[in-house]
Amino acid sequence: MLRFSILLSCFSILFSLSLQISAEDIKSYDELVVTAFRTPTQLNAIGSAYTIITAEDIENRQALTVSDLLRTVPGIEVDRSGPIGTQTVVRMRGGESNHTLVIIDGVVVNDESQGSIYNFADLMTTDIERIEVIRGAQSAVWGSEALSGVINIITKKGSGKTAISANLEAGSFNSKRVGGSISAGTNLYDYKISASKFNTRGTDIELSSDKDGYDNNRLGFSGSFRPSDKFEISSSFNHTNSEIEFDNCTLINTSTDVCESLNDFTYGSLKATHNSFDYHWQNSLKTTFKLIDHENFANNTQSGAQSSKEYNLALQSSAFFKTPQFLDANHAFTLAYEFESTDTSSINFGTFGTTAGVEQNNTVHSLISEYRISFLNRLHLSASGRHDDQSLHDEFTTYRTTAAFVIPETNSRLHGSYGTGFKNPTIGDTSSVFGTTFLGSPNLIPETSRSWDAGIEQSLFNDRVIFDATYFQERLEDEISTNFIAPTFTTAETVNLAGISKRRGYELSLTASLTDKTDLSASHTYTDSVQDQKGTGTFTREVRRPPHITSFNLNQRFYNDRGNFNIDVFHNGDDSDTGSKLIKQYTLINLAGSFEATKHVNLYAKIDNLTNQVYQSPIGFFSSGIAAYVGINLTLNP
Description:
The protein has six helices and 37 strands. The strands form six sheets. The protein has a 22-stranded antiparallel β-barrel. By secondary structure, the protein is mostly beta strands.
């Protein structure tokens, strides 16, 4: 606790300065990002590269899953192992899928029982208000898994008079979706309760007549209570269960396998926030939980199970103040303490040899400090540091610095960041959860990274056109990988690689309001991700990291904005997979349209994969062909 005492002393000194910022300064920011720092921040003060997907973007594109939206974000690559419902992972800036931290309503949802990845297969776009993507090393702010970036998903809250809504949709592959919600909100409270169900007969990853069905059920709640304008208690709860059918689960009778996976995911949060001294000092206490269970079946016999339970407690204190006599500077200083306890278990019954259940517990005490300063509302600087004291792994310290410089005379903004990151080994890395076939190594050490990026954002024609270009580099050490053991190569073990993995590239994005009713957005990402597995200095390209990804979106409103048409184009360049197999380039074109028939009725239709592209990403897993859907949204205010 010595470190915490020192940080607290620093906080006391800073807070004792003259506090001259007003409540209006804190609350009048037009647009804020909540993910880039420990407290919400103005867009122009963010040094890290970021992308925001709004509720309007989601409605215009009519995307079913969040992963479909993320495909078009610069720096992101999405792999889905077949049709909808199959495992879907996201890689950012050439990193591994467990190098991206995912947050939903304040809860970190990475799954320790599945290698610390987050499987986007079960995350629908229903009730999502906003998605924030922050790229680059963020471990100093968010801890392990945030080496390459953070994706923060915020669901809709209740507001205004009581509103009841319903959604009905049907389409290809015998797909059906139904959902509904009830919500309300005043200055004193708000709430929203929602539920949805989606099921489809699906398609087969081998393009055979054996369809792989998928079911998804979700229940969500969010609510807040504000007895005063300076005190708020907020909570959230989400539960999702899904069932997916798939092939080749025994690797023996692949043509006759009947395979399915049952997944149960429950998580929630409770947070109290208090502002004092005219919003100069903000304190919060938050607790979260996460319960995950997976059950796998092969030919109607259970073949394995994995589970993860995580509890988190966080205390945070932030001070905001001005020193107008010194370059009209604004200051924000934050101290935080987090406690996290994670229990993970895994058992396998057959394919790779029966094992006894493997269990693992890790507790983490974290101290976080962050300081931000802005000069003349032009130069914005930040420094963040984090120390994690872990029961299962070594102590670890990470840091991050960012800078943004606004040039109003040319409507330009320069931005850059430098940071370090780390990723702990998982239960599958350190334990032999698959018997004698895949051997864990208990002596593994965390992966570590150093990364930086720099870019420029340029606004033109009174902000009707905004262009951003960012260059990035990352250096990953002690990467955890699987090494097949000679001479038979039939068994494998996890190891820390001796060499260095290097990632570099650039991200380009463009948004433009061509007319009052026509909007255009486009992006292109180049990624060069290579690995030196044996420390020889000879680098090979890492698999499933396409060098080139391009997207384009055009949105047109018509008939007094009651109608909307959207075209979404996504191109994935040539890529490679395990065994030097080629993943051929492919282009997806999606169309969506909607019409507001009355103020209570909205009709929509969409076509996915318009050109019926046949593609595999990864190899051996064919995605669905062309599909069409129609739906209706009903809203009622009693």
